[in-house]
């Protein structure tokens, strides 16, 4: 901020410290949500654009209202510096209002206030909800992998993985390289939680402070990834989760399964050559299976991608396409897939999300399980008791 | 929100002993078959020896097939009609008695004499290797024992709270089923039923598996009365309604993101074509009964 002009220097405040008595102010914050709409003026009936949503700087999340906003550049995750923002109070909470007098420009995440782990309360992973921030965690790195994504024109590396404490695991996504290694115990301050595929995901950005700790009481990562399967009823109750394991029997196959065609741009399946988003496209062939896995307490849909579908079915995408040329009815191909999976006992690990149709699991692994029948028979006989 | 009904792992004997029904809550709720042994089921998973299917019914245009699935405890009728083409084809593909798995919907028919008769409308049928049959029988035996333990625990201590059972990892659906079994079948000899599972466990171990399947189903001694006569074929008017209903269902399902037809949207369309909500519901009930249409989620329909 330049202070060479005549305007008095405004105080730069953290969102946690906003008070209507100190207004206007200067803030640096990240857009958590932003909804654009138009409001009709009562005076002349004209329409005036407005963006409202939530801003966060790691110390608090507050609502903001921006009258006559620019047409672009209000994406979630963007960091803004606002000079001359008004502070209002609504139902006992402070809010920010950006008016024509407010000067707003882009800022970098590094300009956000540093969050000191001692300032914020420690939370168990299990209690984290989307929108949370201003907390610290003590967790074990269970899994981490990097991938490259394009953000606008540039390529960036993102680190995805899984963190856990004794209360449970949470998926994370880091936009900076914290050199997190599997098995490390760390203390994190300055992250925030968003919703990804219907589940909470921890986002670690430039201002997140990572400290190595001893963490003797934290769970062993291998133990977490080998965790025994849980009942599907329980997974349904909890609305899915990460690092899930379920085991059951395939009792159904939901459409679309088998040979599908996908939009080359967005990957959605196309019907009659039409993508819902991109219109007429040249569909790319792919294999998938939407299995209904049932363990007697509940059922989940397992969205199996090409490689695992090929393994379960025992034929490749090319073989499936060759078969299709010989079949009078393409639905027979789906029948053949169903025939090959129906009644199989599978153990599936991955993440699960819940919607109105129940829980869908996106598997990281799908293994076939064969019972040791003699040992099982012995166990069952023991349970039946004497005299049976 | 209503989740897909789980497939209860049951023996033929448990189905034969199930004579009570319970209607779920909400509009257009599922009807559950209650067993004395802690199952509250609309869908089941069975394993045993499946006999070749026989055609029943007089209407050649609407074939209906029935076979029997025998496990070491008893046998149960498994049916499929032309409206469940997949299940019917699978049922008809069984030409010699052999090990098979069946997933299907339970159906209770109460004859004029008041005798109840349970059958299973197949959703999927598959002939399997003997090891697969044994593996499913193992699961049936294990879960049946789990349910019996639960029913007995609740019987011994009726004051045990649902929360306490849930903390022990018992699914809510099982707790509900156990309480319903005790309330509806106060006089059943559960220890005798438990002893009958010995035959299933012997089959799991690979010994004297299924009962003699060479015996034709007609003379097999079971506690079940003969199956009901097939219902009278629908009238021409009913057929026309069904056909309109199915056309519109396909139309709505084709236009939906998830492949299911939304019930409310469907009724709007049928009403616009003269099939009012009440009639549409009657048609739906008939088609569901016949297994043509299924509703895995309340309010979401699709062809079976
Ligand atoms: Zn597309």
Give the low-confidence spans of chain B: 212-226
Radius of gyration of chain B: 20 Å
Overall mean pLDDT of chain A: 87
Structural class of chain A: mainly beta
Number of helices of chain B: 9
Rounded to the nearest angstrom, the distance between the terminal CA atoms of chain A is: 85 Å
CATH-defined topology of the largest domain in chain B: OB fold (Dihydrolipoamide Acetyltransferase, E2P)
Enumerate the spans of chain A where pLDDT stays under 50 for 5 or more consecutive residues.
Answer: 1-6
- Portion of residues in beta strands of chain A equals over 45%
Provide the residue-averaged pLDDT of chain B. 85
CATH architectural designation of the largest domain in chain A:
Beta Barrel
The beta-strand count of chain A equals 20
Strand order of the largest sheet of chain A: 11-12-9-8-7-10-13
Query: How many strands, what sense, and barrel or not for the largest sheet of chain B?
Result: 5 strands, mixed, barrel
Kindly summarize this structure in a few lines:
Chain A is mostly beta strands. Chain A has six helices and 20 strands. Chain A is globular, with a radius of gyration of 26 Å.
